[in-house]
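Reminder to self: tokens first, then the designed residues, so the page reads top to bottom the way the pipeline ran.
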């Protein structure tokens, strides 16, 4: 395995490559942004599997896509950018309709992290001062990247000197064949329930069973199943933009391109995953001459319950003073010559067949709360 710094700009934004015989990862210190994750074939040829911009200036321009970026202090939407903690009211920057999204206007995605290579790990650190974007407490964050055979592991460690909110993720969009969109990619996620959203995309703290809905991906189905506008939740999000509650600690999200058979498994220590099908990506230039637009990638964002400060009796996102925060995400990749042994050969022949009815299951509060 090799890690090397490829560039350091005058503004101290650094670029790195992590590489072994299976993967090559390009990453920037700006937002700990994953620019490319290249999967190698048997001949050593690389194929990019995620969405990314051609230049760092495209990321600095803040288009709102969050391609490949670390998101925090709190990912997803925070209702009206407001919360009360220990009897004190806080106002966070509002940047998405009436709500705060992905940490506010100057969230972690738009910060340049300090960085260093340490043995077989690439380590990024950031000090978020008390009341940055309105969040209480001085928070020190470390994000560690490491390659493990055919997998990229992302490790988050944080600590704050005051009680605060902390809900971190990476906003990585997968497109395993760099096609125009991922509608025909196959998706499976081990989640029997998903969170309901309001017209502004805010998770409202109620859940429904995925059975008999177009958001039932417990067996492999094409992503476009989740675009069925006869379903109210799909209408509200204009596609998939929902939090899926993982069934247990061994649950996975798996995406496969049925043409190339490239596959990625996403594992996490976090209890849920927000899936977002790029419903509002505006036409833009991507890497290697590819043009992106709506549904160009599927963002997979492991995280705590969105807006948990309002939606849970004991919010997961509250990080107590001096209590260590530690969570992990793992992306494991396969090509057609090296497939997981527990998966899928038969499904795609039936993938175009709708296997749900259009009725809605009744709402219910999350039993984990």
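Designed residues (369 positions):
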């Amino acid at each position: 395995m090799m890690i090397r710094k490829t560039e350091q700009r005058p503004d101290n934004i650094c670029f790195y490559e992590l590489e072994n015989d299976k993967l090559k990862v390009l990453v920037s210190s700006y937002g700990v942004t994953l620019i490319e994750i290249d999967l190698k074939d048997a001949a050593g040829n690389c194929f990019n599997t995620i969405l990314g911009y051609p230049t760092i200036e495209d990321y600095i321009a803040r288009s709102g896509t969050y391609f490949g970026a670390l998101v925090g202090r709190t990912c997803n939407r925070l209702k009206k950018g407001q919360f009360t903690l220990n009897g004190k009211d806080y106002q966070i920057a509002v940047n998405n309709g009436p709500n705060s999204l992905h940490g506010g206007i100057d969230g972690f995605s738009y910060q340049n992290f300090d960085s260093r290579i340490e043995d077989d790990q690439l380590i990024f650190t950031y000090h978020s001062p008390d009341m940055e974007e309105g969040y209480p407490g001085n928070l020190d964050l470390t994000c560690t990247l490491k390659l493990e055979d055919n997998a990229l592991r992302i490790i988050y460690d944080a600590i704050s000197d005051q009680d605060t909110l902390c809900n971190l993720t990476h906003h990585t969009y997968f497109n395993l064949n760099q096609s125009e969109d991922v509608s025909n990619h196959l998706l499976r996620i081990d989640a029997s329930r998903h969170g309901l959203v309001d017209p502004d995309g805010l998770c409202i703290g109620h859940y429904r069973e995925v059975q008999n809905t177009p958001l039932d991906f417990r067996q492999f189905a094409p992503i476009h199943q989740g675009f069925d506008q006869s379903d109210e939740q799909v209408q509200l999000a204009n596609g998939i933009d929902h939090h899926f509650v993982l069934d247990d600690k061994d649950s996975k999200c798996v995406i496969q391109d049925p043409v190339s058979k490239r596959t990625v498994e996403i594992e996490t220590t976090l209890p849920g995953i927000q899936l977002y099908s790029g419903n509002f990506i505006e036409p833009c230039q991507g890497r290697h001459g590819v043009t992106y637009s709506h549904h160009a990638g599927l963002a997979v964002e492991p995280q705590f319950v969105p807006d948990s400060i309002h939606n849970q009796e004991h919010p997961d996102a509250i990080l107590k003073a001096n209590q260590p925060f530690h969570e992990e995400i793992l992306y494991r990749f396969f090509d057609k010559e090296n497939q997981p042994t527990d998966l899928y050969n038969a499904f795609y022949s039936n993938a175009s067949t709708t296997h749900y009815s259009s009725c809605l299951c009744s709402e219910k509060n999350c039993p984990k709360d």
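The helical segments are 56-60, 232-237, 308-311.
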